Structures are given as structure tokens and as C-alpha cells.
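Hi R.,

Here's the chain you asked about this morning:
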Amino acid sequence: MRIAVDAMGGDFAPLEIVRGAEAAAKEFDYQVILVGDEERITAALGSPPSLPVVHASETIGMDEQPVVAVRRKPEASVVKAVQLVRDGLADAAVSAGHTGATLAAGFLHLGRIPGIDRPAILSVIPNEATQTVLVDVGANVDCRPNHLLQFGVMGAMYARKVLGVAQPRVGLLSIGEEPKKGNELTLAAYPLFERAPFRFVGNVEGRDLFNGRVDVVVCDGFIGNIVLKTGEGVVMALVNAIKKEIATNWMNRMFLMMSAFALKSIRRRFDYTEYGGAPLLGVNGVVVVGHGSSQAKAIKNAVRVAGEAVRSNLVGAIADGIAEMLAKGAESANG
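And here is the predicted structure, written out as C-alpha cells:
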């Protein structure tokens, strides 16, 4: 398994990226290839270097226009990492840098899976029992009904192939469970979902992301990104509130000591670094997008996610699912 990692992407590059890549190579026995400024990466690796390095002389800043930057900077680290996948020199690419640039690099250099109009970004959210897949979380802020349908197919395939859910339950995020509730987009998408080649359970609400009612929740990227960031904020606020209560009350400190194991387990389940990164679905290759503030642990797990996607043939499964959907659509059109 060969995973190319953009060593210059993210708030803590390259040091934390390098540390995470080294940890992943050791723990998962992958060949991790670091892409970026060779001098800086080598300094972080030490001597002799523990991982191979592919030099990239450019980086893409967070303030740059994604598509323009990818085209104008062929030597950018994220571009070269994706190109390694395109050229068959790596099985997957990982970047915690500019999300839009990673999306653009994947789209321009790997192309789309046939039948996919727009790639989407997926996120895995812990629920009461296991995990919920949320798609899209930011790649597409304006969508048409058929885009949501494709997101549903891709999310269901991820849940089946990577998370091991035999028959994923797919829900359409709306403001009520009734089919006639929602905005123009969800109202138009609903009948498409009813005929889709996955197990559609109807509209779902925000709380269903966390109660385990569904395995996959579908929405446009504008709503999905807000939902994702809100969830992160709630968890952070809750952790900080608990810390303050513990600091001001000795009885609470005693309770913490008695409940330390359970609280540690809960915190781990809701820690985004445990989930590593979000696969970019719909491009013809495996690309994983990491959180901009990723440190070594998150990078290590992003590499793990990339390896799982490769091993499960996620790209092939999505292609098969989309082909099945298109075939059913053609049959319906022909009567």
C-alpha cells in the first residue's frame, strides 16, 4: 500500500505531518511517500530519512482560488501528491491543506467516476451506537436533486464497503420526517431517493445524525458543513464546561477520578483526530482530505482511512452503484 501525503498542507506542516506519516508507516506497514519541500521535510525526518520524499517546490495558500492555483502551480505539493496516484506511483493521496485545492487537484488530475456530476466530501460522525456517514460536508454549496441522489449512492457504498454495514439506511436531511416537508431541493430529491438502488428510509432531522436511526445522511455541502462545524463546536463547549466545573468543585474532581475511564472513552469517540480525514467521493482515485488543524495523530488516521478505501475498492464500488442507478433509470424511462 503506497500512500502519498502532502507534507506542506495544514496549520502544523511539515513537522506534524511528517510525524503522523512516520507513525502510520510503522503502525499500518504502509509505504508512505512525503511530498513537499525536500529540505524542510528532511530536516523534520532527521538523518537518515525514514520515509521517501518527492520534492515539490510550491504550495497553495488558503487564500488562493482553488482551480486557478492548481492550474498555475503544477509543482504544488497537493498537486504532485494527486499526480502520483494518477501515474500509478501511489494508491491514494492525503492532504490537510486547502480543501478546495485538494478537490480541484483530484477533479482535474484524476477525473470523475463515470455518471458522477460532482465529487463530494464525506465525514464520519459518532452516534449512540456506531457511526453515521454525512455527505456532502462542503464540496458543493449549491446542488440539484440528482446531485443529492449521487451523494446517497456514494455514501451508501462507503458505509457498506469501508464501515461494513450490510444494508446501509440512507436518509435525506430535512426539517421534518414527512415527505412534503423541506425546501425546494429536498422536495424534488425525495421521489428520486424513493427509486434509488439503496435502502431509503425517508427524511431525517438533525438529531438523527446522533441517535443511530440511519447510517447515511445526505444534504448539500452548505448545510453539511454547518452541521459538521456546529457538532465540533458543541463537543468543544461541552468539554470546556466540564473542565471548568471540575476546577471549581472538589466533589466534581472526585467524580472525575471515579469516572475517568468512561469519560476518556466518550471523549475518544467524539475526537475528530480518531477519524483522521474525509474521503473525497466521486473522483476516479482515492483522495482523503484532512482537517486543517491536523496534528500527528489525525494524519496517522487519515492515512489509515486512505488505506481502508483502497483495500475495499471504494472507487470501484461507487462506479458499480452509479452504473446500477443509471441502468434502473434507463429501464424506467423505457417503460
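One quick note: DSSP finds twelve helices and eleven strands in the chain.

Cheers,
M.
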